[in-house]
Amino acid sequence: MIQKTPVMRICISCKKKFNRIHLLKITKDHQQGIMLKRGTGRSAYICKSKKCYADSKIKKKLQKALKTSLEPEFVEIFEKEIESYNV
């Protein structure tokens, strides 16, 4: 039986490697725009630690990683998603 190695990704805030399952995926799709947790295209990953998602420069890091500007609607959705990890 072949063992699968976990798919590792790097958090854009702390630069540590994590299993992809334990990260929040933000994707820029050329047709559907920016999406959370799904989609194909340019992606950025953020770990679910409070230090990373509460980083004051996280929006700038996301813009750089996705190579696009963030729309105000997405920022509101992103902040609501982050609040769910706070609980």
Task: Provide a descriptive summary of the structure in words.
This protein is of the alpha+beta class and 87 residues long. The chain has one domain: YlxR-like (Hypothetical Cytosolic Protein, Chain: A). The protein contains 3 helices and 5 strands; from the N terminus they run βββββααα. The protein has helices spanning 50-53, 58-66, 72-86, and strands at residues 8-10, 17-19, 23-29, 33-36, 42-47. The strands form 2 sheets. A 3-stranded antiparallel beta sheet has the order 4-3-5, with helices on one face. A two-stranded antiparallel ribbon has the order 1-2. The longest helix has 15 residues, at 72-86. The radius of gyration is 13 Å and the shape is globular. The model has no long low-confidence stretch (mean pLDDT 88).
What is the highest CATH level, the class?
A: Alpha Beta
**What gross morphology would you assign?**
globular
Distance between the termini: 40 Å
Topology-level CATH name: Hypothetical Cytosolic Protein, Chain: A
Q: Tell me the name of the CATH homologous superfamily.
A: YlxR-like
Overall residue-averaged pLDDT value: 88
Strand order across the largest sheet: 4-3-5
* CATH architectural category: 2-Layer Sandwich
Q: Number of helical runs? A: 3
